[in-house]
Amino acid sequence: MLIEREAESCYLGQFIPLQYHHNMLMDANRMDNFKAAIQYRVFEGAKVLELGGGTGVLSWFAAQAAAKVYCVEFNPDMVAEARRLLSMNPGGERVEVIHADAFEYLPPEPVDFVICEMIHVAMLREKQVEVIENFKRRYQEKFPGQMPIFIPEAVVMAVQPLQQRYDFWGYQAPIIQFQLPGSFSTDTFELGQPALYKIIDFMETTDQLIRWEGQLVIEQSGRLSALRFITKNILAICHDNSTIDWLNHYMALPLARPFDVQAGDVIDVKFSYRAGASIDNLQNNIQISAARIEPIAVRGAAVTVT
């Protein structure tokens, strides 16, 4: 089991190269909102644990108020890099960078907050859900009583019908696309509103198998050629019930056989996948059925027609 998980982790990008961490540090949407959530949540003198610390920047945000931060990182190269970077920043001495597996590590004392940013769109590829569920079970055994607060606190996921253009200088290439939220492109046309398919509350027990069977209402006539997956991370819930959020890049999965739809059509969609699995695990398990439409498919998935 351990060998299987280690092999899968290598494929799923658990060892993210340093240059990609630079991209994350440059991502204002990610950085501004995590900083705001950590500053809002972490009080003076708190004890904090970060699982999967990378460059250590989120631990450093926490260290501005916390008395102690345990920053766990599995990649030995990133451990050395985080220690170097933290030594250059005021307050970095309050962060202890620990070379350990987040699936196995427990802090030597109870902590008030756990920061974990192993997040990919639709909770695929990275191990956020599995790591936190594993941690909660082991932490409760070692420190019975109150569970620390998680940052993020919850995740909201939705799916949306798209008319997506895949023409690249005359070359047809229907491939997965990651799209910046809030940006406009003439290649993307929203055929309907997103439908909520999953809410994860990290304080509650979460099943790693994510299933949804629901309907997408077509509001604009067009050609349904992709499903867009939307993931909003609720980093902190404030006292006035407002939230500090981080919206991931959208992920548009192409349909193997696009088809025409009319305003008012209802499309039945069914899928299941395991949190932390590859994108193929979702893509190959999508089923779509629609009245009065020829059989359709999503890249090798089983298909039905009502």
From TrEMBL:
It comes from the Bacteria. Transmembrane segments: none annotated. Pfam families: Methyltransf_25. Keywords: Methyltransferase, Transferase. The keyword Methyltransferase applies. One of its GO terms (biological process) is methylation. Residues 48-137 form the Methyltransferase domain. GO terms for molecular function: methyltransferase activity. PANTHER family: PROTEIN ARGININE N-METHYLTRANSFERASE (PTHR11006), PROTEIN ARGININE N-METHYLTRANSFERASE 3 (PTHR11006:SF53). This is Methyltransferase domain-containing protein. It comes from Undibacterium cyanobacteriorum.
